[in-house]
Amino acid sequence: MKTYIVLLRGVNVSGKNLIKMSKLKEILAGAGFSNVSTYIQSGNIILESVLDKTATGELVHQLIFKYFNCTVPVFCLAVSAIEDALKNNPFPNDAEPNKVFITFLNQQPQPDLIEKLTLIDFGTEQFKITDKLLYFYVPDGMGKSKMNNNFFENKLKVTATGRNLNTIYKLIDLAKKYI
Question: What pTM does this model have?
Answer without folding.
Answer: 0.93
